[in-house]
Design goal:
- With 290 residues, the protein is α/β, with parallel strands linked by helices.
- 40% of the residues lie in helices and 21% in strands.
- The protein has eleven helices and eleven strands.
- Helix 1 packs across helix 2, helix 1 packs parallel to helix 4 and helix 2 packs antiparallel against helix 4.
- Bound molecules: glutamine.
- Glutamine (GLN) binds next to loops.
């Protein structure tokens, strides 16, 4: 504890932090300073704006300053907070999980009509999320469609603990099963839908990634092998036995991978039934049936 720190106003703390973040070249200093202030002090953005003179007590100032130092060292803001919103759900994160990206919401949008349709027609829809990480895709679908069920696999036991914790916190644990598996190895049963946001970065491109990603997201969740397509080969070639009749498979892809990934699935006997662009205008998700 530093005895010398006197209480300061929320607005002044925010402004000082924003300036420091901006001067260090952090891309979104306003947003990051706001998010960290709220996280460290419990003061919402609204409270800061409507009561700018409100004093923040010493111990909360220390906590806030520690958070700002971590951000200045390029730790991603959502990792400092330990949470990120995905498809309207607050998801807990640890070092074992990729931070869920807004682009991945594209994949949820693409498959949601099929999940709703299967539940309406058959009363259920079994979903398999390969490499579930924080559980983002599976849990978003379960939250949207009340009678769907999901199995999330991951090779990381730690990631599965996070997925399971998220399922519990969101009240979805009774419809979510976590299985530790190297791709399909431990998976049994059949599913109306398989989804995956697999690792798809080319190994040679990893060193050039933004440090926020390269140094903080788990490499296992990023590295797609020499051409970035290793995971899609497994998904295209080994998924068929796990698909129920008329089952479908949807994957997130890198911004330039649509032609290659489509070819892999077509060569394995699939037909493409949909695709969807991300917020940046790149095809980000592909949808196939056998
Ligand atoms: N979209 C992530 C990134 O660009 C990569 C995630 C992945 O490989 N599935 O950092």
């Amino acid at each position: 504890m530093n005895e010398a720190i006197a209480p300061e106003s929320a607005e002044k703390l925010y402004r000082t932090a924003r300036t420091r973040l901006a001067e260090a070249g952090i891309p979104s200093p306003d947003l990051d300073a706001s998010l960290l202030l709220e996280h460290a002090t419990g003061l919402t953005v609204l409270a800061r704006i409507t009561e700018p003179g409100r004093l923040v007590p010493t111990e909360k100032i220390e906590r806030f300053r520690t958070c700002v130092e971590r951000r200045l060292a390029r730790e991603p803001v959502h990792r400092i907070i330990g949470e990120r919103e995905f498809y309207g759900l607050p998801l807990q994160l640890t070092a074992a999980t990729l931070v869920p990206r807004p682009d991945t919401e594209t994949l949820v949008d693409l498959v949601l009509p099929l999940v709703r349709n299967r539940v309406a027609r058959n009363g259920h829809c079994r979903i398999l999320d390969m490499g579930t990480g924080s559980g983002a895709i599976a849990l978003a679908l379960l939250a949207e469609v009340s009678r769907a069920t999901a199995t999330g696999t991951d090779i990381s036991a730690e990631a599965l603990m996070v997925a399971q914790a998220n399922a519990s916190l969101l009240g979805l644990a009774d419809r979510f099963t976590a299985i530790r598996s190297d791709w399909f190895e431990e998976v049994t049963g059949q599913f109306e839908l398989i989804v995956s946001n697999p690792p798809y970065i080319r190994s040679d491109d990893i060193p050039g990634l933004d440090p926020d990603v390269r140094e903080h997201d788990p490499l296992q969740a990023l590295d797609g092998g020499r051409d970035g397509l290793d995971a899609y080969r497994v998904l295209a070639e080994r998924s068929a036995p796990f698909l129920a009749e008329n089952g479908a498979i949807a994957v997130e892809i890198g911004h330039d991978q649509a032609p290659e990934v489509t070819n892999l699935f077509v060569s394995a006997g699939y037909r493409r039934i949909g695709r969807r662009k991300d917020y940046g205008g790149h095809v980000r998700a592909l949808f196939f049936v056998k």
